[in-house]
Structure formats: structure tokens, C-alpha cells
Specification:
- The chain has 200 residues and is of the alpha+beta class.
- It has 2 domains: 75 residues, Glutaredoxin (3-Layer(aba) Sandwich); 102 residues, Glutathione S-transferase Yfyf (Class Pi), Chain A, domain 2 (Up-down Bundle).
- It is built from 8 helices and 4 strands.
- The relative contact order is 0.16.
- Homodimer.
- This is Glutathione S-transferase.
- It comes from Acetobacter tropicalis.
- One of its GO terms (biological process) is glutathione metabolic process.
Length: 200
């Protein structure tokens, strides 16, 4: 049995939930509310998500996604094997961990959870990233390749919920269209809006 530890309002957790659903993998979701001794035992950094699978314990959402594809869907187009598209996917995974986290995700953390120590220029970083993404998505339908990949799953949630951080998507038409394409994928599951969930 696959067990996923996390919270429903985490975009990092959502990207793993989304992949699990697309791959049609059964799993048990364990909601966590903080860095418990159990959580710290699995990931001393205290971060979510954490995946447990037949004795294997993994953390870091992007690493978990790579594991799931290689373990349960080897050869899937979600994780290309050819060098150039593989590099494009990796680039966007890095953006998900960098610019997306420091921009839209950070702004959302401040607005929803009043988190301190987030970048003071998170909104400016968000619009710089979205301007770049919007131009890029005006040239192709998905981020890394002509078809959906882990890159799209990694970048979806914090982009879709950017308005929760005060970042409007109104002027980013190509991003809006891309979000709809992701939402149309078989097996898509949404990340709830914070107003619809009690934060855990």
C-alpha cells in the first residue's frame, strides 16, 4: 500500500496526488498537521509530502514523482527518456522548486497562513514568472514538450491557486488556457480552494 503524508492545501502534495490519480494508483492519504516525531523520523527536514511504498520512504515532491513514474509507469511520456525533452522537463521542475516557490507559492503562504520569512518581492517574482510562462505557452500547449509531462503537474497547483496569494491571472490568457488543458487530463484531481477547507 502506498501512503502519502501531507495536507490538502499544499501544492507540493497536490502534484503527487495528481500523478497518483493519473497513473490510477491506489493509495492512502494521511493528513499531517505539523512536524510530529513520526514525520521527523521519515524526513528530518520536517517537509511534506512524504511517500511510503513497501518499505521505501521518499520526500521531495519532484523526487517522488520521478520515482512513481519510473516504478509504476516506465517509459511513460510523462517523463521523457530522450535527452532534450528530459532536460526541458528538468528545467521546469527546477522552476517549480525555485521561481514558482519563491513567487506565487510564497505570496499564497503569506496571505493564507501569515507565514513570515517569505520573500518580500514574492508578487513581483510571480508576475515576472507568469509573464515568461505566458509567452512560452503562447508557443506550445504544454511546458516542456508538445504533450503533458511531470513539468506541467509540478507547476499546476501554485499557478492555479495564485489568486489566493493576491496574484491575478487575468492578463495571462495562455496560462489560463494551459490550466484548462491540465484540468481536462484523464484522472485530473483538483487542489481545493482554501476557503473550502479547514487548514491542517
Amino acid at each position: 500500500m502506498i501512503i502519502l503524508y501531507g495536507t490538502l492545501l499544499s501544492g507540493h502534495v497536490h502534484r503527487v496526488r495528481l500523478l497518483l490519480s493519473i497513473l490510477k494508483l491506489d493509495y492512502q492519504f494521511e493528513a499531517v498537521s505539523g512536524p510530529s516525531s513520526e514525520l521527523l523520523g521519515m524526513n528530518p527536514l520536517g517537509q511534506i509530502p512524504i511517500l511510503k511504498d513497501n518499505g521505501i520512504i521518499l520526500s521531495d515532491s519532484n523526487a517522488i514523482m520521478v520515482y512513481l513514474v519510473k516504478r509504476y509507469a516506465p517509459g511513460s511520456s510523462l517523463l521523457p527518456q530522450d535527452p532534450v525533452p528530459a532536460a526541458h522537463v528538468q528545467r521546469w521542475l527546477s522552476i517549480a522548486a525555485g521561481e514558482l516557490r519563491q513567487g506565487p507559492a510564497a505570496a499564497r503562504m503569506v496571505c493564507l497562513f501569515h507565514k513570515e520569512n517569505e520573500p518580500a518581492n514574492a508578487k513581483e517574482q510571480s508576475h515576472a514568472l507568469f509573464t515568461f510562462m505566458n509567452t512560452h505557452l503562447g508557443q506550445q500547449e504544454f511546458l516542456a514538450t508538445p504533450h503533458p509531462t511531470l513539468a506541467d503537474l509540478a507547476c499546476y497547483a501554485y499557478t492555479a491557486r495564485a489568486p489566493e496569494g493576491g496574484i491575478s491571472l487575468e492578463n495571462y490568457l495562455h496560462i489560463q488556457e494551459w490550466l484548462k488543458r491540465i484540468e481536462a487530463l484523464p484522472g485530473f484531481v483538483s487542489m481545493p480552494w482554501a476557503k473550502d477547507v479547514n487548514p491542517v
